[in-house]
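To: structure desk
From: M.T.
Subject: fold request, one chain
Message: Could you run this one when you get a chance? Sequence is below, nothing fancy, just the single chain.
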Amino acid sequence: MTRFVSLLLLLFGLPLGAEDTAKPPTASARWTAADYELFTPATFRLHPPVLRVMDRLKLDEGLLSAAIFFATNAEREKHKLPLFQTSRALMACAYEHSRDMALENFFSHENPSDPTKRTPWQRMEAKGMKSGERAENIAMRTTNGLSYLAFADEMVKLWMNSRSHRATILNRNLVFLGCGVHACTCAKFHVYATQSFAWVVP
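Reply: Done. Structure tokens follow.
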């Protein structure tokens, strides 16, 4: 069988070993930043792990963050706008703010506990983004037995139904997007989500 596949690859001008590249992460593997390159908004929706109901004991925060990213890019596609590019710096910025909100029990663009990262601009500047247009969206809700995909769709729907959040998502001047989530330890299993946007990134 391997020999047959190799012959097909040679026949169609593909390099040997091409059948082993760009494989999506398996259902058991946790999401990594490198996995973003393997999907489009459409193909991500077919990725089996995103159809699983979220389990608070095994929550894959990277996968949920990716689900929000691709659901957001689906909205950009609908409006014929360039898709957001990923940024590890923005992902870290978004994740850290969601974590702080979840662990310190506040819901705001301003961090009341740490004056060095009080505002979105301070948080982004700490990650090297010191110029250009920048923005932040936040949201919080319970999972209510939702799958990763359904939860992401609900989050993006909330933002798209708000004039200011919608304007941020559809802002043509914003090029990069990082999404980050963190669940609280409360009984209701609230998940906090942050979107960090920028025109330029380091």
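Reply (cont.): The radius of gyration is 19 Å. Let me know if you need anything else for the meeting.
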